[in-house]
Model the fold of this input.
Amino acid sequence: MTIRVLIADDQELVRTGLSMIVDAQPDIDVVGQAVDGSQAVALARSLRPDVCLFDIRMPGLDGIEATRALAGPGVDDPMAVVVITTFDLDEYVFAALRAGAKGFLLKDAGPELLAQAIRAAATGEALIAPNVTVRLLEAFAGDRPAAPPPQPVEPLTEREEQVLATVARGLSNGEIASELFITVSTVKTHVASLMTKLGARNRVEIAIWAHQTGRMRARTTGGDSG
Done:
């Protein structure tokens, strides 16, 4: 099945370069290009691509607001958005993820990681550039929300706690399966259950919840025997 991608960037050279990289993938096609956030939102709603690849800094409506319009809280049928930027700034990462993005990459990430992020987003997973993942989660660990994190609608099982910890470390489904000696399909089942119980929209929100509730600190200090 071919993954249909919409690219939005205000620089023509960047759009062209990204399009060439994406179209070179046998299972991914570029179905549209936009020069700013407003055009990106309009095209996305018209074309209904599988994944939107948005730059952050664009004139008028920027990539963050475009992401929020298509994937933010309250959107009935959210789209998969991957944000890509030249600016390695924490506030951009936080804003993009809180707006509903399923991925965050730097423009120097390379073709392989870009393709991985698009494929992950198309299947409902999230991929963040490895060089910002650890810093991001550490920041969220100390970024206490104004209200206590919501409690699960049902208690987590021991295996779900294990999967939660691996997701919070940024592991892929394959890596989790290898570490816990279970199948990839079983991992997907547990991740889906975690999303339901935690009210999370993606893996990133699962990881954020794990850090904000102190579970990762407990595991690091030996407070969790599971």
